[in-house]
Specification:
3-stranded antiparallel beta sheet, 2 domains, 5 strands, alpha+beta, 3 helices, two-stranded antiparallel ribbon, binds zinc ion, Alpha-Beta Plaits, elongated
Length: 105
């Protein structure tokens, strides 16, 4: 059992958190804040030019921008040419777009 408020886990059978009195839930639920944080990724580029992706990554890395390549594994199957998304956290969106705009992704 789990208390969403205290982020504490309790053994099965306990229904009320001994710490705060809140009803415990079955398992850890992701709080709204964490969901928002998780979704704060912004796609700054979508490309099928797979050969440009490592270049884009190194540019972002050089600026210490945390980035994610959605569909990176697809690059091993270039014949499918499925668009790959380059994502960054919202705070870095503007800088990332600026850095990548000359790449012609
Ligand atoms: Zn609690």
């Amino acid at each position: 059992m789990y208390c969403n408020k205290c982020k504490a886990e309790y053994i099965e059978g306990i229904e009320i958190c001994p710490n705060c009195g809140k009803a415990l839930v079955e398992k850890q639920h992701i709080t709204e804040d964490e969901v928002v944080e998780y979704r704060e990724l912004i796609t700054v580029a979508t490309t099928t030019n797979y050969f440009l992706v490592p270049l884009a990554k190194s540019i972002l890395e050089s600026e210490d921008i945390t980035h994610f390549i959605k569909g990176e594994h697809l690059m091993n199957m270039p014949r499918f040419m499925i668009p790959i998304e380059i994502q960054v956290v919202k705070e870095d969106e503007e800088l990332a777009r600026e850095l990548l705009k000359d790449l012609d992704l």
